[in-house]
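In this section we walk through a basic example: taking a raw amino acid sequence and producing a predicted 3D structure, encoded as discrete structure tokens. The instruction is simple. Fold the sequence below.
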Amino acid sequence: MKRKTAFLFLMLTLVLLLTGCWNRRELNELAIAVGMGIDKHGDQFRVSVQVVDPGEAAAKKGSGVRAPATLYTEEADTVFEAIRKITTLSPRKMYFSHLRICVIGESIAREGMAKALDLLSRDHQFRTDFYIVVSKGTSAENTLKIMTPLDPIPANDLFSALETSEKNWSPSMTVTLDELIAALTSEGMQPILTGLRIVGNTEMGESNDNVQKIDPPVRLQYSGLAVFRKDKLIGWLNETESRGYNFILGKVQSSVGFVACPEGGKVVTEIIRTQTAIKGSVNRGEPRINVKMQVEANVGEVECQGLDLTKVSTIYEIEKKEEEKIEEIMKSAVRKAQKLYKADIFGFGEAIHRADPKTWNSLKKNWDREHFVELPVDIKVDFKLRRVGTIGSSFLNDMKE
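The resulting token sequence is shown next.
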């Protein structure tokens, strides 16, 4: 009898645990959001959500009747309210677990974006693997309206383009929500985000005609890095300065650069590997930063005559010129941050904190505006060429006038 009672009790317990699909949500009840834009319109948030059209996106060839994605936009006093308000336009509730890109409008970035980010970090639907960028010279809403050629879903195109650009061209960088919040709450580092601009006429880019031409008249392009002081946008780094920033932080996986030849022309090199070390030190209460960078590269292109790559002296000369050029690129980023923006975007404060926590406690209160602007930064680059390609001396040397 006791055994039967115990068995019955066990079965009842298991029934309570087997809840089944009580909270299931069918696919045809969801609007899968892949892109999101947040702007400021007066005192209200203007939220734009790019939603996939499953039927059009799943087809091997689009029907041409509907766009593969739809954009819903609403305004409200808070981001959460604006998202829920979209249900007055959409037949389905927004589902954000597959979000790929979030565009912060330049207007809200200059006012302060922290309040707009709280929902993204708090709501369980938002994962942290999407990228955050800042619209440049336009609204976030406009960037999400542009039709893209290679990937029919614009948000997916933006996600892939940013990853590819970061891996192969150093001025761009990916930033996830966790990384952005870590920089916002750090005492020794200011946030940085990649800028996104529209090249061409915005209205033309909203039409399906934009992707039906071999040379689309309107494109989305990542351009420079946005500099923040806490959550407020204060300016931009140009392409060269953005490269310098990524060099300093060791974020360059691959890139291309060149140096001038003695008799005209250029030698182009492909960076294949980098490693950067940032070390802080304090001497008699004065902080100092040392940046050491190791670069490995291959010769990618030679445009000049009379250059013999089989000679050790030629390789050595190219390496020295590259070291000087990369050092200057890195210094240009430091100068811009120190003299114009007065914002430690490199995390030099964190390096000083690691080196001497006691001194850092006395410096951190006025770090950016007082100590960082006068901080000595020593930069040393060690550049090594590994391969010169399938040919040694260029065929240009054999060409006759």
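Looking at the output, two observations stand out. The longest strand covers residues 266-283. The two ends are 108 Å apart (CA to CA). In the next section we compare this with other chains.
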